[in-house]
Design brief:
The protein is mainly alpha-helical and about 160 residues long. It has one domain. Helix content is about 50%, strand content about 5%. The strands form two sheets. The protein has a two-stranded antiparallel sheet. Strands 3-4 form a two-stranded antiparallel sheet. Helix 1 packs antiparallel against helix 6, helix 3 runs antiparallel to helix 6 and helix 4 packs across helix 6.
Amino acid sequence: MTNDTNQLDEPLHWGAAFFGWICPGLGQIMLGHRRRGFLAMSGILGLFLCGIFIGGVDCVDRREDPLWFYAQAGSGPIAFAADWANSALLKTGKVGELIESPPSNPRAPAPLVSSFKTVTVASEIGTLYCALAGLMNIVVLLDALKRRPIDRANGEDAR
């Protein structure tokens, strides 16, 4: 353990954390850690897109599953775009047809759902994958917040 620098005195890189939320891994790339940034980007975006492919775009839904969406929102604007696609395209019937779903209350009218809505375990797995991608990106954001930038002239950590 070295005493040459105190970790508490090092500045926080808020810009890198912000751009890392906009596009996962971009914060590390901005700090000069390109390999780390591209690995984080491919892991987070790959996990999120696998969740969309497995569970469909309706696995990201901030109105029906707000607690899951809080975790999914950590992956950045891609979660908000998937939620928009779900609410503006699927739930309105612009894509696919709206069909009656069995009501949970027998006295209530039957709710209309999209014919593309997934109702199996695949939807739950897709929701979980997208949430894990968001939580993974939060860890990457915290890393970008405290990581030392690489001095581009020497190719070493700036101290």
